[in-house]
Amino acid sequence: MSKELLEIKNLKTSFRIKDDYYAAVDDVTLTLNKNEVLAIVGESGSGKSALAFSLMGLHNRAKIEGNILFKDNDIANISPSKLSKLRGDEMAMIFQDPLTALNPLMVVGDQISETLLLHTNLSKKKRWEKVIELLNKVGIPRPEHVYDQFPHELSGGMRQRIIIAIAIANNPELLIADEPTTALDVTIQAQILDLIRDLKDSMDAGVILITHDLGVVAEMADRVAVMYAGQIVEIADVHTLFENPLHPYTRSLLNSVPNTAAEQEKLHVIQGIVPSLQNLPRLGCRFAARIPWVDAAAHEENPILHEVKPGHFVRCTCHSQFYFPEESKEDQTHGIS
Ligand SMILES: Nc1ncnc2c1ncn2[C@@H]1O[C@H](COP(=O)(O)OP(=O)(O)OP(=O)(O)O)[C@@H](O)[C@H]1O
């Protein structure tokens, strides 16, 4: 589980708004290994999708700086022709909303076949056979019948399976799943997650799983990166993150998912939302405005990720002096043990 597949270095993705550029992803440095699930979590607007789209080279008009190193390519600086060879072949994405990701006017079997046509030399008959095999693999019953159905004739769970079949058609080594189960009910959600896990194991693929659902993180992830306002504020293996979260934002996120009513009473959650792009502070700790009771001197001028234990990184020094206002003095010792 240690072979590095993807290396993201100082990635900055900026959108032009009026006369200026604003970074939705700012100074993101991450690695992903083969056969590893790296979850990216954070509230709405924290930059998760902007990051996923950057990795797939899907932004048309954004300014991309830094490096995205994957299989001897730098996706941040790659030609469109090289990119379209990689996409759908060695890297693929599972989108949040299968209905908008599928072509409503084409039967689903042909949509899977199309990605084979783009990246293989298989004959029409072989492609049909491969599509049936893929439909079986993603758990679609009566695949010969489903091949000729249009997206609107299928349930949400079935459509998501079609998206997954398209994504894995060419055995990608890198799979990016952006909220893959958000639109699905709980039972189907569990089946889709099982499917992604099995596919990862069978293909030895690296998976970046974007979600705001910490239950999904606990079940699926090997490592977790927490994003706030375009930046990674904490990275750790999944056990460390749940057992010993350090960044105030991570602690608040975890507290926002109470297990029982009794526990809920003891929990503390930081109020507020991620600022809009144009209102992001460009200097200093981006989380400072959400924790005004913490001494300003606790924040770094230019917060960086500190490795507090091997593999456990946290941004800014403010975590060491952070406490929830409702906590007693004894509770305030939370932190590195
Ligand atoms: N094309 C764009 N042009 C301008 N701003 C954008 C664009 N795409 C995203 N943004 C802004 O970038 C920030 C990050 O958005 P992003 O969609 O990446 O967040 P997210 O964490 O994926 O949220 P969600 O969970 O709601 O999908 C937001 O402030 C958003 O409004």
Automatic annotation (TrEMBL):
GO molecular function: ATP binding
Keywords from the named record: ATP-binding, Cell membrane, Membrane, Nucleotide-binding, Transport
Family of the protein in this entry: Belongs to the ABC transporter superfamily.
Membrane topology: Peripheral membrane protein
UniProt key word Nucleotide-binding: yes
Superkingdom of this protein's organism: Bacteria
Protein name: ABC transporter ATP-binding protein
Keyword Transport found: yes
Start and end residues of each ABC transporter domain: 6-254
Organism: Virgibacillus tibetensis
Listed SUPFAM superfamilies: P-loop containing nucleoside triphosphate hydrolases (SSF52540)
Protein location: Cell membrane
PROSITE patterns attached to this UniProt entry: ABC_TRANSPORTER_1, ABC_TRANSPORTER_2
